[in-house]
Design a protein that fits this description.
- There is one protein chain.
- This protein has 346 residues and is mainly alpha-helical.
- The protein contains 14 helices and six strands.
- Strands 1-3 form a two-stranded parallel sheet. Strands 2-6 form a two-stranded antiparallel ribbon.
- A hairpin with a 2-residue loop joins strand 4 and strand 5.
- The longest helix is centred in the last third of the chain and has 25 residues.
- The protein is globular, with a radius of gyration of 19 Å.
Amino acid sequence: MDMTPTTTLSLHMKTRETSKQGSPPHANALTPHCAPLLESSMDDVRATSAWVASRSSHVLVDSAGIEKVVSTIESIPKVEWDFEGIHYFDNGPLTVQYLFVLDALNFCFWPDKDLNYDHLASGLKAALQNDKSAFDADRLQKYTGPQLRELLRWPRPLPLEDERVRLLHEVGIELERNFDGKASNLVECCGKSAVNLVALVARHFPGFRDHSVYKGRQVFLYKRAQIFAADLWGAFGGQGYGEFKDIGSLTIMADYIVPAVLQQLGILKYSPTLADTIAASGEIGPGTEEEVELRACSIHAVEKMRELISVKSGRQVLSVELDLWLWASGVQCASLQHHRTLSIYY
């Protein structure tokens, strides 16, 4: 795969304004759910991913492969959030509501060969354009599977449909309980910190608690919680609801595509058994050593890439930028084979 960046990419990020126009709370007007957070969710992701990589037996992070790839990179292309295409964007609270609903549902498309992220993002956009109250918290609590299909204009049951409906209900209930029904209020509570936002989302919404246990130790990955922060940053251009003083703290969002791209580049090496399973489109169970290693080693490898590129270029390189570049390269490669795991987390 030719991954030499030559042009600016304009692509999709990977994957409410209610009828009452109330003002969002100020971040310093603390309520129990807006209390300052002391945990460093991203430190946990980096540390536990490195721990997995140091003990991995199915996936190897190849340091020489990283150096070889980095030596060919002159610069990371600027990536623009493609709100003009498949995403809803109105520069206000309704966009935040849209993105939170989108990222609550942004997982596991592969069991349906025709379904992909674009269908989800554009389907939700069309639903919101047709009915601005479609994602009100009280309505999110009541959707059924057939109603979600109708919302997305999808003709058959969605993969993990019951889980998708459950997560919609969870989002609606918790937004109504603690954030006056609005995801924008949730964002206001983070104090312009992406780390705080990831921790808040994981604290309040169990469906975003992307954890695994590997060889007796808990591993933190937080794919969809991080994507919510990254989507906000991309959609709002780092301003308003997308302004985060610590956007550089986010890691990549460990999914299906990025590990496959890293393997093609020679940065990740798979055991023969794992490689054969992926080549045969065999399923890999969630929480298995192979699955955790694929995701954690991807995070660790890209952190090493980021450090080397930053040294070479003399400027800070964001993992979010690397994630978008790698992901875009992957989805544009029709021959790419990714691992297959039934999971609500990615």
